[in-house]
Amino acid sequence: LISNPSVAPDLVLGMKKYEEYGCADCHIIDGVGEKGGIDLSLAGKHRSPDWHFAHLKDPQALVPDSQMPNFGLTDEDARVLTVYLLCLRKEEIPSRYVCPSPKSEISEAK
Fold it and tell me: Which of 33, 42, 96, 102 is in the most buried spot, having the most CB atoms within 10 Å?
């Protein structure tokens, strides 16, 4: 799932943003949350990473009748939320969504 260790910090940030924006007030992941929105447990399987990013930035631009509010997410918040959604699909995360670790962290990890 996460063969690239630099995904871990983005995943943690994405989980925090999921909580911060109250996503569980409308969405379910693995049975946890409310039923107003779609179940996100498999959301990453049905759409491309770019679609998720764009939808998080402006839901109505892609789905005109979407009930999801436009939170005015920054690119960074949309990126880490996309990483979180992609991790739910249990497949590799495209490298363009992963911030590389600073060289010093990589050296220290060896």
Answer: 33
